[in-house]
# Entry
Amino acid sequence: MSNLKKQPPQNNRLLLKYLGFGMQLMLALALMVFLGLKSDKWLSFKYPLLVWILPLLVILVAIYQAIKDTSKKSNV
# Structure
């Protein structure tokens, strides 16, 4: 019975960790789209190149970070 009481705090901690990761990802994507729009306008590109490239880089970094975080072996 003591196992059941110890599990939820660890699950809540894990939930908060990935909730924070998701919020960071959404904020980074929004910021990169905004910066891409401003940069494309400033550089006078014919096509919205940086609007596509900057968020793609954020997504690639997020995938790398998620794989790195989930592949760690736990000491439990």
